[in-house]
Description:
Blueprint: E1 3-8, H1 21-30, E2 34-39, E3 52-57, H2 65-78, E4 80-82, H3 85-91, H4 96-102, E5 111-113, E6 127-131, E7 141-143, H5 148-160, E8 165-169, H6 173-177, E9 179-185, E10 188-195, E11 216-217, H7 222-233, E12 243-250, E13 256-262, H8 277-289
Parallel strand pairs: 1-2, 1-3, 3-4
Antiparallel strand pairs: 5-8, 6-7, 6-8, 9-10, 9-12, 10-11, 12-13
Amino acid sequence: MPRIALVTYDPGPEPSKDRDLPGLVRALRDAGAEATAVPWDDADADWASYDLAVIRSTWDYSWRAAEFTAWAERCARATRLANPVGVVRWNADKRYLGDLADAGVPVVPTRYAAPGEPAGLPADHEYVIKPASGAGARYAARYTPDQHDTAVRHLARLHEEGLTAMVQPYVKAIDTGGERALQFFGGRLLHASRKRAVLAPGTAFDADKVAHPGLEPWTPTPAELAVAERALVAVPGAPELLYARVDLVEGEDGQPRVMELELVEPNLFLDLHPASVPRVVEAVLKVADG
Length: 290
């Protein structure tokens, strides 16, 4: 009976945002595993007592990136960690998009501005500012050129927090066609989803946002699947990934581009795709049995 930790976060007095977690714990137990949901920062957790720790919903990590990476290093020394700690370290900072671009993967063009560096805000098109370490559209906003002063204040706030800022052109196709999320598990396409635009015009960067509005099942096109697979192949070191989510948007040329490659704690959307649960369980048990 493999002992499996599904690594999550502590929501405190608020309800957990991970609606998939209870069902996944039950499904693994029904399949014969001893599965437990464990917050990553639980000081009493004995990671060495598990055969496998699967990072599932550590959704507070982006504001505690250094602390989280240090935890991942410790956990990986104590037990098998999925995804591997090198992947976690690389993917926790969205400057990985530059690595993907260098490898020839079509990505949304991105500039980075660390604290003390100028951002070079666009003067002729709508754009997005967000932190290089972030999740759920936190501290993200879209701007038109005439909102320059507001955008500068946004950058200043990110830099005050010690965060590197990302500046990307706003991909207008998101407003009509949304974003596509292709979910891979155990090395195979698991399912795909589409969500509508997250960033509404005029929404403040520090306002609460719905991370996955209008989520619905999606059948990926051959072009989308090809770009997603290219992104996965380009991950440094060609590691074995238990899970991956590739978020795609349609560029001005009508072709898919990578918006984000989620290899740390992607939402699986199992409530939208319940038929995928047995495949997830099978893949997790295969890794646990080693």
